TrEMBL record:
Belongs to the ABC transporter superfamily. The keyword Cell membrane applies. It comes from Aliiroseovarius salicola. It comes from the Bacteria. Pfam families: ABC_tran, TOBE_2. PANTHER family: ABC TRANSPORTER ATP-BINDING PROTEIN (PTHR43875:SF14), MALTODEXTRIN IMPORT ATP-BINDING PROTEIN MSMX (PTHR43875). This is ABC transporter ATP-binding protein. InterPro entries: AAA+_ATPase, ABC_transporter-like_ATP-bd, ABC_transpr_FbpC, ABC_transpr_MalK/UgpC-like, Mo/tungstate-bd_C_term_dom, NA-bd_OB-fold, P-loop_NTPase, Transp-assoc_OB_typ2. Residues 4-241 form the ABC transporter domain. Keywords: ATP-binding, Cell membrane, Membrane, Nucleotide-binding, Transport. CDD domains: ABC_Carb_Solutes_like. GO terms for molecular function: ATP binding.
Amino acid sequence: MAKITLSNLRHSYLPNPSSDDDYALKEIDLDWNDGGAYALLGPSGCGKSTLLNIISGLLVPSEGQILFDGANVTDLPPDQRNIAQVFQFPVIYDTMSVYDNLAFPLRNRGRDESVVNERVMAIAEMLELTEMLDQKAAGLSPDNKQKISMGRGLVREDVNVVMFDEPLTVIDPHLKWKLRSKLKELHQRVKATMIYVTHDQTEALTFADQVVVMQEGEVVQIGTPVELFDRPAHTFVGHFIGSPGMNVLTCEVTDGTAMFEGHAVTLEGPITGNAHAASTGRTEIGIRPEFVSIGKTGLPATVTKVSDVGRHVVVECHIGEHRINAITEGAAPAKGDAVHLEFAPDQTRLYIDGWVATEPTPALQATEKEG
């Protein structure tokens, strides 16, 4: 295992990039600690697979360095980086038995057969493959084939990092939860550094201790699943994580006060940063549906849709042209009802050009620490 450091990393597929728009990866600086479980999360085309290929050595970055435990590996090919990679589609040998598939990475490196057997049996037990060890891989279901692929990545004890590139894409939805849980269990048992690439927030948030959220080649936030949900640093994070995502509402800022549809909205705390930016940049209020309540006072709205999703009810409302979702667990209004919406002040934030521009009051910070 290894600590992985990305230093001043940028990459463009163009020979002579001249602006930020020419870069598939904008400048990235981050550390992944030895033994951690990390996820790269973002929509298709955001740069996460490009970043994974740079870490693995399949791509050489246009700028910057990749360090494994402080050693510069930027120009090393994949076979010299001591990594394991599990791909979207299972990479296995159909004509081999499950046992021989798991043993192959060790035998290929000349390991003693007693060591091979010990590791294969241990990984097979972890992945619930023990009863299939004598079967040919060709006849197995897609989820079991992907288990083998995962096992081939985990069977070696000397790898610097195990990387998973959308490994559950081809798995039936009803089996995904089982493999997600198994992968989390595996990390806790083998303690290898793991990086998981996905566009699925559920996969990322259930697997990773730290999630790197990417948009258009840029890292917009790094944090724990709780941090990403509780305090999105960017409107993209708030919108992308959560179901439904954070309400993002265009507003105006006048004398330090956020005005939405003619109403002053209480924010979590003072507006930070350049005051000029609040008057020249794009200003928006961000509030998650979980913190929008329906009451007798507040912003007047009209209910346009009511969705009972089992655990709670999502009430879609409109104030002017703005759609606002609220989540309630009690009795819900009906479509067409006139209601009032209240925003929890400690969860209502101002965003300028996408980035959070308020900070919690000291009293709120103290409360969060106590919680």
